[in-house]
Specification:
By secondary structure, this protein is an alpha/beta fold. It has 15 helices and 16 strands. 38% of the residues lie in helices and 14% in strands. Strands 4-3-2-5-1-6-7-8 form an eight-stranded mixed β-sheet, with helices on both faces. The longest helix is centred in the last third of the chain and has 17 residues.
Length: 457
């Protein structure tokens, strides 16, 4: 502790924040908006251009591509995402580098001081982290700030900032305890990031009508996938074919979009980012609206270099993906089937190390992955929301799956797999951010120099 009684290390700050509020998630903007005003976050924009991204799945990849595209166009950038995988610092990137402990602590101190004066306001761990990130971004005034909504949209702490462009990636059932099971209501909540008269990018062909209805009620210009913009060259669905360019080379795809006046624009021979092309196309549309025009070569460079740990991330024959609901699992199954088709001469099994939280749809995830998984290794996740390996095993067996083994932790499961997996086998690690984070931490410990973890390929 320092002289003011405040923590002096990032770990001690995070421990303090975890214990400070009676509940982990407390949706609502009244408390956050009060402290944001005290911090001066409502007085002027936090960046020259702000893009906010909401959705059930695809937010992280869309944010990563927007950030990469902005950097390739010579913009100074800031990106705020959640949750993190290994280090809290991952949540805030400034010019593509993780924020240092010192920068994060400076933000926490600023929020704490504003929270207490003139009268105390209670904030959750996520709310403090969000306000600290927004305060840090606002002090730097970057050319582009990209903000990922944590949960929902309308009542999420990120929504204290008015975006220049709002993106809704997908809408599916998840976080039912907070958002319910009504898709129309969930869609309306996610559309709550939109602002009157400002563009709304709708990044899925399957969004509930409530999303577009809300945009129209605000007079927000709608740019919808399949209407105002589209992509061709690699289909993003389960029957995806290898991505090829106009002359047959791997990696080329095309984008057709619209400018702010609704006039058609386009980009050709784009690099395959190894991420959902619906999200890539949405990122291109959003940034075109924010900047006015995009440079084709810069777009190719950005999409070729973008990396997102934990999303179709391969290291040798191990693949990590944080998919934790049926919608994400369906996409993952499609990409694995695509890879198997391309590598049809490679023998071996696909083994799935899966760990999930109790409040997630395990049956739906298992059903989606079953066509591409030969055998399963369920593991227990600890904590109040953790699901046991035995529970997962019973659900897998009920659907006719083969259980190789089950383990009391992700590390125990990985130990078992490493001792018996065949050279031609593939290992899929999925089901939760916690499951993937444990493997990434394991790889980091095993790295001789403690170096950078490999990105997605």
């Amino acid at each position: 502790m320092d002289n003011d009684g405040l923590p002096t290390t990032l770990d001690s700050w995070l421990a303090r924040l975890e214990a400070a509020h009676p509940v982990g998630i407390d949706l609502g903007l009244e408390r956050v908006a009060c402290v944001a005003q005290r911090l001066g976050l409502t007085e002027r924009p936090i960046a020259r251009r702000v893009i906010t991204v909401a959705g059930t799945n695809g937010k992280g990849s869309t944010v990563a591509m927007l950030e990469a595209l902005g950097r390739a166009h010579g913009l100074s950038t800031a990106a705020y995402t959640s949750p993190h995988l290994v280090r809290y610092n991952e949540r805030l990137r400034l010019d593509a580098s993780e924020a240092s402990d010192e920068v994060l602590i400076e933000g926490f101190v600023a929020v704490e001081q504003a929270r207490l004066a003139p009268s105390p306001v209670s904030l959750t761990y996520f709310e403090v982290g969000t306000l600290a990130a927004l305060w840090t971004i606002a002090r730097r005034q970057p050319d582009l700030a990209v903000l990922e909504v944590g949960l929902g949209g309308r009542l999420d702490a990120v929504n204290v900032v008015d975006p220049d462009v709002a993106v809704v990636t997908t809408v599916a059932q998840d976080h039912a305890a907070f958002l319910g099971n009504d898709i129309a209501i969930i869609g309306r909540e996610k559309a709550g990031i939109m602002r009157t008269g400002r563009p709304a990018v709708l990044g899925s062909r399957d969004l509930p009508s409530s999303v577009a209805d809300h945009a129209r009620s605000l007079g927000a210009p709608i740019f919808a996938l399949g209407e105002a913009f589209a992509h061709s060259g690699r289909h993003a669905g389960p029957q995806a074919a290898p991505c090829a360019g106009p002359d047959g080379e791997q990696g080329g795809w095309s984008w057709r979009g619209s400018d702010a006046q609704g006039q058609p624009v386009g980009l050709e021979r784009l690099s395959d980012p190894g991420l959902p092309l619906d999200n890539a196309a949405s990122a291109l549309q959003a940034l075109w609206l924010a900047l006015g025009e995009l440079d084709p070569d810069a777009c190719r460079q950005a999409l070729a270099e973008v990396r997102l740990p934990g999303r179709m991330q391969w290291r040798g024959n191990w693949c990590l993906d944080v998919g934790h609901n049926p919608h994400a699992a369906n996409y993952l199954a499609g990409r694995l089937a695509e890879r198997r088709e391309v590598q049809r001469d490679v023998q071996g099994r696909t083994l799935c190390l899966i760990g999930m939280l109790e409040d997630k749809d395990a049956e739906g995830v298992i059903a989606a992955l079953s066509p591409v998984v030969d055998a399963w290794l369920p593991v227990t996740l600890e904590g109040d929301r953790g699901r046991s390996a035995a529970d997962l095993a019973a659900r897998i067996e009920h659907q006719g799956g083969t259980i190789l083994h089950h383990a009391d932790s992700v590390d125990d499961g990985a130990d078992w797999l490493e001792s018996c997996v065949e050279p031609a086998d593939r290992v899929l690690v999925t089901g939760s951010f916690f499951t993937v984070a444990a493997i990434l931490a394991r790889w980091s410990r095993q790295s001789s120099g403690g170096g950078v973890i490999e990105g997605a390929t």
